[in-house]
Amino acid sequence: MEIIVGPYGMQSPHPYRRPHVELYDELIVHAQRAEELGFDGIALTEHSFWYDGYCPSLLPTLAAVSQHTERIKLVTGALLLPQHDPLKVAEEAAVVDRLSGGRLVLGMGAGYRPEEFLGHGVPEGRWGARLFEAMEVVRLALTEGTFSFHGDFYDYDKVSLATRPVQNPPPLWVCAGFADWSAKGSGRRGWAYCTTGDVEGGGSIFDLYEEAAIAAGHDRASMKRGLFRDVLVMPSEHEVTAIAEEDFWPAFNDQFLGFGFLKRMNPDGEQITELPIELKDMFIHNPRNAVGTPESVREQMKPVIEMDLDLLIVRTIWANFKHERTLRTMETFANEVMPHLRAESRRRQEQER
Amino acid sequence: MRLGLLCGLGPESANDGYESALGQIDEADRLGLDFVLFEEHHGARGCPAVGSLVTAAAARTSAIRVGAANRQLTLEYPTNVAEDFAVADIISRGRVVLGVSPGERKAEFDAAGVSWDDREESFREAVELVRTLWTQGAVQYVGEHYQFPLEVEGQPGWRRQPYTPPFVDQWRRGQAKPDYLPMLPRPVQWPHPPIWVTGWKRDTIEWAATRGLGFRCSSLETDDEVRTKIGWYSDALEAAGRDRTEVDVALTREVFLAADGDEARERALPALRDHVAAIRAEAIDEQADLAIMSDLDEQALLDRCFLVGTPFDVLDRIKSLQADSGVTHLACRVWLPGREHFETLECIRLLASQLHTRLVA
User: Fold this and answer.
1) For a disulfide at B96, which of B33, B89, B188, B226, Cβ 3.0-4.6 Å?
2) What ipTM is given for this predicted complex?
């Protein structure tokens, strides 16, 4: 199991306004620290046209990180592929893979905010279909010498990428939430699948994925499972409360509605503009977050070990997490939780053998 | 005059070339050269993803400007380019230059599925769109080739979001269909990173001047052709009521320096011959009437195009171009395929020690 820290979005939200130059400098500091602490990689996340300057260009940013790190994988989690030209993404991926000496991991998602599609000249609708088609273009471009592709959305005739990646190809992942179509679609096509878990944060979504994969005749060994998991871990209860109250909840309060997941109306029939305070506890304490001291987080991560993951993206950062605190979370996780996770997942693998 | 480098890093150099090129840029940064540009191509002699090279170079250096020589904006939706270079400007703390070009190889457009015949019109719209996104907040842009956001209608051009209550903040909006969007984060430089237009047609050059954009003359023109083209640019600039101090005028040259002139020529020529052959093989309509494409022999190329020789040999020619045309930036293509890393480094050191102070002063 590879353990990745992130994903970083370089946001400067209302509760914690920062100059972007500092955020990008800090990203490099965090990447170097993650490398020292023994993480396998660092992940970035993208959105466009978001008010807090959410990072819209992952591959150029990873190119910068590649120059200050030596070992860790550089993960896009996720690059919203339908909002880019897939051929361009393949070319950029090849160059970043070259620049990093073969450390790129390309996680790709569909995106879900209509304005992001429209702002990039992509019509609304059929995002999933676009994602899978575009991923096929990226895969062909990175693996085949010359390829042709004729689909509903993309059309290429005898195109070849002259600049080749170091890895052949870099690992390609579908990064998705918990929608059925993503699990089934990834399985059917035999793509590696990284998810936020099912609605309860559990691994049942992987059953759906494997069913579809086996039905399509894919080998069980070729299926790869990835998971995003929020982790708020600090050495003491007091610090856990501080990060949950001062960083995590304000982040959700500020960000969540804008992503359009919560369709709730005020009594006057208007869409709500503030998160209902009664939801606070649900946001902080739910099975999708591991919150607490190292001891308790180790306990909460047990179901994650049982998912037999290939990739675990440990989310230690949201929009307004303070720089120092995030580093401390990362350190606590790396020293107190990660060795346990690695040992347990090794033991399970050996048992299976 | 500012002095910098131009790197064309093709697939032939992708293996070890990126590492040596970045090493050369480290050296140029350390020695105080002013800028480095990367050439975009999707085949030989250029990197297909200049945005990533720019941020990588920016992350390694502290003072040198970094940028694209000829970003071909229309090969993808221009919003993505605006975002990439905004992030690059942030990572570099305001050292980015965006050189843009309407297109240089038909095959590249065919591969990307973009119309070659419309390249000029869509290029102009793309430049306007990028500049609008960089400088405005929530904005819409209506053009024939591009709309931002897609499907907005109205008069051609850009306009800001009017304040019409009830105003809904972006972060409260959720999944609404937008008429106006802000591109964020915005670049650090004010009002925006310099945009240098590369073009060969008189139309393109005059349009760049009218719009107050910089101009980068390619390395294909002879010294006299450079004077003519910068003359067109200056005239159009004046006609538009603009001043030369508003804009940058860059010139690109193949450069090779050594302490001994004959030795410089001898060592420079093999790589230059291949370079010229490649240029001639893929000339497009706009470049067809340039002297380099037909009747220049080797001696003429050395005398009128390339800057090869001792630093003092080339200094006079540069000074005369500076005096006649007011060239503000000289981009030197020092590395070519087949040229050794140490030769290139040595040449960069000569540029910095022998020419830089004399030209900047």
Assistant:
1) B89
2) 0.95
